[in-house]
Structures are given as structure tokens and as C-alpha cells.
TrEMBL record:
Cross-referenced InterPro entries: ADH-like_C (IPR013149), ADH-like_N (IPR013154), CAD-like (IPR047109), ER (IPR020843), GroES-like_sf (IPR011032), NAD(P)-bd_dom_sf (IPR036291)
Cofactor(s) the protein needs: Zn(2+)
Species of origin: Solanum verrucosum
This protein's record includes keyword ATP-binding: no
Annotated ranges, domain Enoyl reductase (ER): 37-369
Protein name: Enoyl reductase (ER) domain-containing protein
SUPFAM superfamilies: GroES-like (SSF50129), NAD(P)-binding Rossmann-fold domains (SSF51735)
Record's keyword annotation contains Metal-binding: yes
Listed GO MF terms: metal ion binding; oxidoreductase activity, acting on the CH-OH group of donors, NAD or NADP as acceptor
PANTHER family reported in the protein's UniProt record: ALDEHYDE REDUCTASE
Length: 380
């Protein structure tokens, strides 16, 4: 999940970081798909990327995950969109240029880019591999970069990125299904890591909500050796949860008897819901000392009743995306265990149809924009 609208609004104020040495020339032509007003309709948009600097790599984008957050920004649902906006923060592609100070990447290598485009590189958070929480963090779209220019995201043909925010994609992972790992995958990976689920297999955990983020929580939970239950308001999700994603259990949250039967049965819950809700019923499912980690971001405050917290020493915590170090750790883990997103490829001519379906939650479980096919067909 990306950062909140209020934080993002503050990030649009230009600040000069230690990264800024000089304003680069904008010489590289890019084709993107941008929204120009609150209708959210995406149309072709020609623009310039900066020339590849000494710390940069230029990436030919092959695929980009499509998140409901992209729709919210395109339609200015949070009131802080700057048009034109080119969405997309789950990016996979191939390196086509390398700066003179870059030794970590070579032309032709498979790489990924997540939500972070720049940070100050000099604060306590940046120096402790928590740069995703840096006050000067610049997202890959709908922000102002260190050179005072707008950032444009992965719904485009090329991207220039400081190499310190780029990761290698293992050869075993297909590039299309790897793209959403940069966002949906990293979101749940870091939430579980922060709650020490790596080192202690055999826990009973649950995932609230079965969407793009939730289905990755199931996959990581199983890979870490935990008993995984899905909690949902939709009985139709049970089949996918158990048979397609191998969840161990399913609880219908609207069924009070089911909820009562599972009282104090869980060590950990990851909450992916982005609509207003109360944590009360879910806190009752936690054991004493249990933790619920919130990765969804409702526009309105979540209700957190005190009684189940104080009578069970329970913990409510939040988690947002992850650092570049964590992103590379996750990619390596996924390569080793063959963990991939379940996707539906979207051709460029269906991009607005996919946006409409995202608004209705009509996707299993992540749309991925097929930029590679467009670039190939445009040369024919």
C-alpha cells in the first residue's frame, strides 16, 4: 500500500536533497497512459524523462501492476492529484542504460521498481534501511522529484530511476507475475516480518480480505509455515481461498456463530480492508498477546475498542510498503520458493475497462498492464 493522501500532499512541496547535483536534461522520449482530469480516463501521453545520470539506470518497462490506489489517484478521490498523472508503482523491466557510478546493474538485466523514487539518503531512517518512512520520500508518481519535476509512474514505456531504488528480479520468476510483488507482495511481506512471523513457524494467522494484497498474504503465510485462515464478508470467496490458494480455513465474518467459535484462536491477523470498519470483532479472535497488523487504509478512522485490547494484551500496529533492502530480500525469497501473484494481463486497449473493473473489485487477484506487448506491436 502506498502512503496516505495527507502525507502525499506534503510530499508535493519541492525539497532539495543530497541527491540533487544539477538539473538534468530531459532528452528521453516516453509514451505513457495518463489521466488528465477527475474522470480518470487514461489516454496516450507523450513526455520526456531525464537523461540517464551517473547514479541512474534507464529501464524499458515490460509490465506494471494495476492497483485500486491508481484508480483513486486518477480520479482525484483523495483531493491531491496533480494532472496529468501517469499511475503505476509495481514495475518490472529491463535495464537499457547504466550510469557511470552504477556497478550493481548491467544493461540487459531484469529489474523491478516499487513505490519509492527518491529519499534524502541522509536521515536516521535512510541510514537504517527504513527509507520508505523518510520525510522526504518521493513516490514514483503524483509527486515532485528532487529536480523539481513531476514524477510519472509505470504505465509508460521507459523510466529513469536512481539505482538505489531498483532491485534484481530472479531469473526463475516470470516478469509479468513478478511485477505486483513490488507493491502487493512487499506490503504483506514486511508486515509479517515486522511481527516476527519469519522465525516462528506454526502460528495460527488470518487474512482479512481476499484481494490483490490478501491473496499474497496467504501465499507468504503458507511459505513461512503457518496455519492460514481467510476472513471475509463474501461466502463466495471460500472456494478461492481453500482450493485455489490453499488456505487452511475460512471464516465468514457476518456469521456470528463462526466468529464466536474462533474466539482467541489466532496469533496474528493481517487486515487488508480499505473500507471503514471496526477492529472489535477481529480483536476478539486474537489470543492473549496476539497482534493485528493494518495494511489497508480506509479514508475514515478505524474503530478500535479498548476492552478487547486491555483484557488480552493485544497489539494493533500498522505497516506500509517496505525498504529497498526488504524488497530485494522478498524477491530472493519468492525466487527460491516460486511465490508469484495471480494475475490477469491487460492489453493497452483494455486499460480503461480494467480501471472500471478495479472500481468494482472485479479482479482475481491483480491486473498487470502488458506494456511489453504494446511496444512489440508498435514496431510491427
Amino acid at each position: 500500500m502506498p502512503l496516505s493522501p495527507s502525507i502525499l500532499k506534503s510530499l508535493t512541496t519541492p525539497t532539495i536533497s543530497p541527491m540533487a547535483k544539477s538539473t538534468p536534461k530531459f532528452t528521453q522520449s516516453a509514451l505513457g497512459w495518463a489521466a488528465h482530469d477527475s474522470s480518470g480516463k487514461l489516454t496516450p501521453f507523450m513526455f520526456k524523462r531525464r537523461e540517464n545520470g551517473v547514479e541512474d539506470v534507464t529501464i524499458k518497462i515490460l509490465y506494471c501492476g494495476m492497483c485500486r490506489t491508481d484508480v483513486h489517484f486518477a480520479k482525484n478521490d483523495w483531493g491531491n492529484t496533480t494532472y496529468p498523472i501517469v499511475p503505476g508503482y509495481e514495475i518490472s523491466g529491463i535495464v537499457i542504460k547504466v550510469g557511470s557510478n552504477v556497478s550493481k546493474f548491467k544493461v540487459g538485466e531484469r529489474v523491478g521498481v516499487g513505490y519509492v523514487a527518491a529519499t534524502c539518503l541522509d536521515c536516521e531512517l535512510c541510514n537504517s534501511f527504513q527509507e520508505n518512512y523518510c520525510d522526504q520520500m518521493k513516490p514514483v508518481y503524483n509527486s515532485i522529484h528532487w529536480d523539481d519535476t513531476p514524477t510519472y509512474g509505470g504505465y509508460s514505456t521507459i523510466m529513469v530511476v536512481d539505482h538505489r531504488y531498483v532491485v534484481h528480479i530472479p531469473e526463475s520468476l516470470p516478469m509479468d507475475r513478478a511485477a505486483p510483488l513490488m507493491g502487493a507482495g512487499l506490503t504483506v511481506y514486511t508486515a509479517m516480518k515486522n511481527s516476527n512471523l519469519f522465525e516462528s513457524p506454526g502460528k495460527h494467522m488470518a487474512v482479512i480480505g481476499l484481494g490483490g494484497v490478501g491473496h499474497m498474504a496467504i501465499k507468504f503465510g503458507k511459505a513461512f509455515g503457518h496455519h492460514v485462515t481467510v476472513i471475509s464478508t463474501s461466502p463466495s470467496k471460500e472456494k478461492d481461498a481453500k482450493h485455489k490458494l490453499d488456505a487452511d480455513g475460512f471464516v465468514l465474518s457476518t456469521d456470528l456463530k463462526q466468529m464466536q467459535r474462533n474466539r482467541r484462536s489466532l496469533d496474528f491477523i493481517i487486515d487488508t480492508i480499505s473500507a471503514k470498519h471496526s477492529l472489535g470483532p477481529y480483536l476478539e479472535l486474537l489470543k492473549v498477546n496476539g497482534t493485528i497488523s493494518i495494511v489497508g487504509e480506509p479514508a475514515q478512522p478505524i474503530e478500535v475498542p479498548a476492552t478487547p485490547l486491555i483484557y488480552g494484551k493485544k497489539v494493533v500496529r500498522g505497516s506500509i510498503i517496505g525498504s529497498v533492502k526488504e524488497l530485494q530480500e522478498m524477491m530472493n525469497f519468492c525466487g527460491k520458493h516460486n511465490i508469484l501473484c495471480e494475475i490477469e494481463l491487460v492489453s493497452i486497449d483494455k486499460i480503461n475497462e480494467a480501471f472500471d473493473r478495479l472500481s468494482k473489485n472485479d479482479v482475481k487477484f491483480r491486473f498487470v498492464l502488458n506494456v511489453a506487448a504494446h511496444q512489440y506491436s508498435s514496431r510491427l
